[in-house]
Amino acid sequence: MYTVKQVSSLTGVSEATLRVWERRYKVVEPSRSSSGYRQYDDEQVAVLRAMVALMSSGVPASTAAETVRTTGTDWTGRDGMPELPTLVEAAITADPQELDAVLTTAFAGDSFEAVVDAWLPVALRQLGEAWEAGAISVAQEHFASFAVLRHLATQFEMADPGDGVPVLVGLAQGGRHELMLLAFAVCLRRRGVNAIYLGADVPVEDWEGMALLAGARAAVIGVHLGDEVEAAQNVVDRLSALRPPVTVRVGGSLRHEIQRARPLEDAVSSAAGSLARELRAGAA
């Protein structure tokens, strides 16, 4: 359950506006805590995000409210409703509101796990292909990627990390393709795993230092390009040499190139689920 303050952060809508939408348009009806405070569930947050996306596309508030009341979040492509552009098209416009509408709609349309398994990898691949083809500039690609990073980071902060043994998640030195890895870290946290996200381009000695400082017994790294393999292998070797050793899982297109580390499954949420079960069973 989310407080009105948390929902405001997730949707970009002020607390006052959320209350107006509740009172005037009956978009959602949050429950109340024992202290009388509003509490929203995941479905209600998704509905509010869908309304934000519609309004960002130029739909009047009253029409947007009627749409989400009758169809929930399943409005994209319906007759009379504007279809939002792709992530690439939003990057080309360099319009922050349009880009945010694309991402808000995508993440509101299904569970977080379904979005990062199906929509997000395709959208990011299309973005990379557009850059390689010269259809978008480096600046436009960074513009879109950072927006995705913000959305994922918000979900990461909202998820309860739990109080179990920490799991380090990040990229070795030189690694920079972090978006799907951050999505994986979010999935771990949503399953109650105490994931500590280190981010991109982390030197091997810092991996070792964080493992010792946090008391981690497991780590996850991503490997996507050939020139990242050596650095990733160094991380695995260094963490495996600790006493007690830190076991390492590896994701990314070149995960099978890494020795003495178990490769993760392709689907982000499935990989997170498997690791979470192993941690609970004490097998990780």
Description:
The protein is an alpha/beta fold and 284 residues long. The protein folds into 3 domains: 1-78, Orthogonal Bundle (Multidrug-efflux Transporter Regulator, Chain: A, Domain 2), CATH 1.10.1660; 84-158, Methyltransferase, Methionine Synthase (B12-binding Domains), Chain A, domain 1, CATH 1.10.1240.10; 160-281, 3-Layer(aba) Sandwich (Rossmann fold), CATH 3.40.50. Helices cover 55% and strands 11% of the residues. The protein has helices at residues 4-11, 15-25, 42-56, 61-71, 87-93, 96-108, 112-132, 138-158, 179-190, 204-214, 229-240, 268-281; strands at residues 31-32, 38-39, 167-172, 195-202, 218-222, 247-251, 262-263.
Could you outline the blueprint of secondary structure elements for this entry?
Layout (H helix, E strand, L loop, with lengths): L3 H8 L3 H11 L5 E2 L5 E2 L2 H15 L4 H11 L15 H7 L2 H13 L3 H21 L5 H21 L8 E6 L6 H12 L4 E8 L1 H11 L3 E5 L6 H12 L6 E5 L10 E2 L4 H14 L3
Parallel strand pairs: 3-4, 3-5, 5-6, 6-7
Antiparallel strand pairs: 1-2
